[in-house]
Amino acid sequence: MSMLKELGISDIGDNLRGLTSSTNMNHKNFQISCGCPEADQILSNNNEIAIEKDEGRGEGEEGSDENTLGYVRVMHNYLQQEIIIPTLEPYRTKEIDYGDEFDLEKNNKFLTYEDKKKAYNGEEDHIFCGRFPHLNDCGCKYPCSLLLPKIHPIEIDENIYVGPLEAVLKIKELLFLKIKYILNLSCVSYNKRIKYFKYYDIFINDNHTENAIKYFKITNRFIDDAVNSGGKILIHSENGTSRCWVFLMAYLIGRKHMTFNQAFDLVKSKFNHVEPNDNFLTQLKHYDLKVNI
């Protein structure tokens, strides 16, 4: 990874996302290039090593560690508890099942004819991958059928929700919550459901050199547009621990006139795993001084 950093490549989590088994690495949708021959060679070498390790595992050795020998240990900050299973592979070809938690038909019967044409009509009732629903299997690092039913966006107030990448892939839940706007801070590609949502993408990496302040004015306006229209908005980043909360705090500071400390205390009360990097925290403090003098 240090060699990649020397080449000036940052936030490569998406490039490596899903490349943890020979099945995924042979998947045509995951032949990813970052545009740099040297880096592509490094990634290619890493992939070959990963394939060799995967093929060299004996039965019951996948994802083993000293605590869960012979099992895959799935951890995510938005899970209520970690998942420990023998293998991920069966979940890659399993349909995503949300159960009866989100009853969209009940809401649809009150819609006008024009709204019904834009409503959910079971398009994603039988899919394997929330990120790329056209695929016949899931190539994500952790299969969508395993994670998506267990991860939910966090409600900040009646109009604003925050979450990780997995949250934006849960179309039925977002529609059930009446979310219509999505602020995407993930720098990750996924299928956009423009039939249902209005997206705004900000390409900002989670590192110590990015300038977040230059985006605050336009993202605050986008959040305001969502709230003032009577709709709701989901703000999401890839892991849901840094960028999405930074831009929420910018909105709280810039439009709700909170101090940095008040905004930070609020988000920590909603989600204990908020971890913006020091660069973003410093920018938020400067932004507070600029708008709240």
Describe the structure.
It is a single chain. The chain is α/β, with parallel strands linked by helices and 293 residues long. It folds into two domains: 2-56, no CATH class; 92-291, Protein tyrosine phosphatase superfamily (Protein-Tyrosine Phosphatase, Chain A), CATH 3.90.190.10. It has helices at residues 2-6, 13-16, 22-25, 37-56, 89-92, 104-108, 113-118, 144-147, 165-168, 171-176, 213-228, 243-254, 260-270, 278-291; strands at 72-74, 83-85, 154-155, 160-163, 179-184, 198-201, 232-236. The strands form two sheets. Strands 3-4-7-5-6 form a five-stranded mixed beta sheet. Helix 12 packs across helix 13 (260-270) and helix 12 packs parallel to helix 14. The longest helix is centred in the first third of the chain and has 20 residues, at 37-56. It starts with a helix and ends with a helix. Residues 1-35 and 46-67 have low confidence and may be disordered.
What would a concise description of this structure say?
By secondary structure, this protein is α/β, with parallel strands linked by helices. The protein contains 14 helices and seven strands.
- Series of H and E elements: HHHHEEHHHHEEHHEEHEHHH
What is the fold named in CATH at topology level of the largest domain? Protein-Tyrosine Phosphatase, Chain A
Identify low-pLDDT runs: 1-35, 46-67
Distance between the termini: 42 Å
Helix content: 25-40%
By CATH reckoning, the class of the largest domain would read: Alpha Beta
The general outline is: globular
- Mean model confidence by pLDDT: 81
Main β-sheet, spatial strand arrangement: 3-4-7-5-6
Tell me what the CATH architecture of the largest domain is: Alpha-Beta Complex
Largest sheet: 5 strands, mixed
Number of self-contained structural domains: 2
